[in-house]
Amino acid sequence: MSPKTVLITGAGSGIGRALAIEANRRGHRLILVGRRPAPLEDTAAALRDAQILPADVTTPAGRAAIAEKVAETGLDILINNAGIVPSGALGTLQDDQIAATLAVNVAAPLALTRDLLPALTASRGQVVNMGSVFGDIGFPYFAAYSASKFALRGLSDALRRELAPRGIAVTYLAPRGTRTDAAHGFDSLVGPMAMTLDHPDAVAAHAWRAIAARRREQLPATRERFFVTLQRLRPAIIDRALIRLARDPAVSSAARDSLS
């Protein structure tokens, strides 16, 4: 892949920072977007040819600032990576948590892609949406997060079909759990639910192989790929397994202790 101009949201930490570092290794130019300047500056310090743009992707003003920057630089690849991960028993979820999850994880990627469509059309570019295996397998105690990632997967399918005539590719990435700051909110669930958390660098390297190939979807190269396939073909099997997990006293107790 020749050098591209790549914009990454949520680039201040975690998977976003790892994606930026891997993009830099591949020779791409970077626009790093996030709400807080300091983490973006930390990411940029590890890179060459990177610009930072503090902006809130959930607001019209934030997206307008991004569109203004892209009008100057052009854009080849938009990576909608910013996300939040609420967890815990359904009865503990607050209205503002639900609203924020949908705003950040679903509405912002939709609106930002719309706003940057002229630049992506001009470059016959690519939209990359950072999903999750929870966008295929709805997990107990992650109801709002799973719902948002199911929605993002549907959005990715719809955009792929609508934007293909413009020459724009759409890639949906579905990693499993990752060791990021966001994961601290569900630390209490990791052990009881036997979760395996990957390092962001491994997730980013795997993701960039799919991005470079302009693939439609990238699933983990792990056992979760099998479980996603099983969910799509025989969902009742996954139902039984996860209902047993939800009934486990250690899991239900951990869900009550979840920090998110």
UniProtKB/TrEMBL annotation:
Pfam families with a match to the protein in the record: adh_short
Protein name according to UniProt: SDR family NAD(P)-dependent oxidoreductase
Keyword set includes Oxidoreductase: yes
Keyword presence, Oxidoreductase: yes
PANTHER family associated with the record: DEHYDROGENASE/REDUCTASE SDR FAMILY MEMBER 7B, DEHYDROGENASE_REDUCTASE SDR FAMILY MEMBER 7B
Residues annotated as domain Ketoreductase: 4-176
GO molecular function: oxidoreductase activity
Record InterPro entries: KR_dom, NAD(P)-bd_dom_sf, Sc_DH/Rdtase_CS, SDR_fam
A Gene Ontology cellular-component term: membrane
Family designation: Belongs to the short-chain dehydrogenases/reductases (SDR) family.
Keywords: Oxidoreductase
